Amino acid sequence: MLKNIFLLAVSILLSFPLFSQNNAINKSTFYINVFINSNKQVYVESNKTEFSNIKVEIKKIIRNHPFKIDETIVFRIFADENLKLGYISDVNREMDEAFDIPLSTRRYLLNTVQLNIDGKNWFESKNIQELKKE
Fold first, then answer.
1. Is beta strand 104-110 parallel, antiparallel or unpaired with respect to 71-80?
2. CA dihedral defined by 77, 81, 83, 84, rounded to 10 degrees?
3. For a 10 Å CB count at each end of the chain, is N or C smaller?
4. pLDDT tens digits, residue range 29-56?
5. DSSP-assigned beta bridge partners for residue 110
6. pLDDT: is 89 or 110 the higher one?
7. 107-114: long-range contacts, CB 8 A cutoff, minimum separation 24
8. Element (H or E) spanning 76, and its range?
């Protein structure tokens, strides 16, 4: 009897790592992308957005997205490399305030002039598509 209980306990303990690996594989990520050009114009996804409306745009995206239980949200900020970090951080803070739970942010500093990235269709740029592969 004691041997059976011991074997059951060992099998349960050994199965935990398998379940945790399985959960990591099944987890999906939903990205919210923001672009800040060298003129401090902000684009939330493809929408040019005033600084004061960043929270509203982020909330709208989150509210309209059909979430899965195991899905995580990640903010990605693509910004001109010549911008001051303070402005990028201000935009990030506005994004964070749109959602009650702290989310992770990935920042990409780009030479937008050399890459010829600007305007409404910034996310369709070949260079951005190469960056977002993770």
1. parallel
2. 90
3. N
4. 899 999 999 899 999 998 999 999 999 9
5. 80
6. 89
7. 107/76, 107/77, 107/79, 108/76, 108/77, 108/78, 108/79, 109/79, 109/80, 109/81, 110/78, 110/79, 110/80, 110/81, 111/80, 111/81, 112/37, 112/38, 112/80, 112/81, 113/38, 113/80
8. strand 71-80
